[in-house]
Amino acid sequence: MGSSEIRSQSGAGQATVAAGINIALVKYWGKAPGTDNRPSVGSLSLTLDAPGTETTVRFDAALPADTFVLDGLPAPVAPVTKVLDDVRRLAGETRRAAVTSRNTVPTAAGLASSASGFAALGLAAWHAAGLGDPGTPLDRRLVELVRRGSGSAPRSLLPGFARIDVETAGVEGVPAPPEFDVSLVIALCAVGPKAVKSRDGMAASAETSPYYPAWVSSHPADLAAGEAAVRAGDFGALGEVMEHSTLKMHACMLATRPPLRYWTPGTLAALDALGALHALGRVFTTMDAGPHVKALCRRADEAVVAETLRPVAREVLIARPGDGARLVEPKAAR
Ligand code: DP6
């Protein structure tokens, strides 16, 4: 019996991981040349306590192929198999896997369900294959296989504020002072999946948007300012650079051919509703590749921000900084 067979039989075989979504404060939009899904810019994010994804991976010698069930329905398995293949290679695992996943995020609605999804999948497969505790700092191989799934996903491996470095493509936590108690109030401004997936949109922006080079070259200053603001617990400075990064990204998107316009009338209604609180510096907003508005405020203001958004939004969620991806089952393995 070869060593890989011994390894595959001794692996835990099954693991369940929960991961929260993360929202970028300084945005990622664009990929470096190559096939490894490395970003062309860094990013700074906040991992949230909810919503998110819970995923179970079960390696099973009786399975002829990988299977993937998302929210109770069979779903395309190819992206899942890519992650599983990476883990199988690392672990010498030969079995196929049954993967089941449950999202509390509106799937593909621009609310970054791919980030919590690939973080949960990658870490669940890692544990199910018996690769053990990924450690602190995180095992680089885990970060890379999760990133190949989705560029924003490594940030959901970590709790709270996290930063992806453009040079190394590694992810690390950014410590905030303990009294820095921010909330992110999410206004869902439309229903249904987004028109253009991030991956396709990024490729189109890089090819056709005249603002793309300026986006990339002006990005490091925003990332440095965002990180400094988190470390200093400077709410106003963080909110200001978050909005600047957001609006630059959307300018780059709008100048893409054909244009990427992710906002809807509901997006603008939410921004307008927050106008008075925004003028007071009590709330700042960010939008991703979708119509929803994410409002950053201090915890003391989360209720008033949510109340302000409720009349104009389809749904309002209040989220706070959350844990990174974590093992739910088996409990003893970590
Ligand atoms: C606008 O991580 O979804 O939300 O790497 O192609 O999977 P892929 O893209 P993805 O892009 C997220 C883009 C964004 C900004 C951000 O989260 O930083």
Give structural notes.
- This protein has 334 residues and is an alpha+beta fold.
- It has two domains: 3-176, Ribosomal Protein S5, domain 2, CATH 3.30.230; 182-319, Alpha-Beta Plaits (2-Layer Sandwich), CATH 3.30.70.890.
- 37% of the residues lie in helices and 23% in strands.
- The protein is built from ten helices and twelve strands.
- The strands form two sheets. Strands 1, 2, 3, 4, 5, 6, 7 and 12 form an eight-stranded mixed sheet that branches.
- It is globular, with a radius of gyration of 20 Å.
- The chain starts with a helix and ends in a 5-residue tail after the last strand.
- Bound molecules: ligand DP6.
Can I get a quick summary?
By secondary structure, this protein is of the alpha+beta class. It has helices spanning 3-10, 78-91, 113-128, 140-149, 198-208, 212-232, 235-254, 265-273, 275-279, 302-309; strands spanning 14-26, 43-60, 67-70, 73-74, 96-103, 161-164, 171-173, 182-188, 283-286, 293-298, 315-319, 326-329.
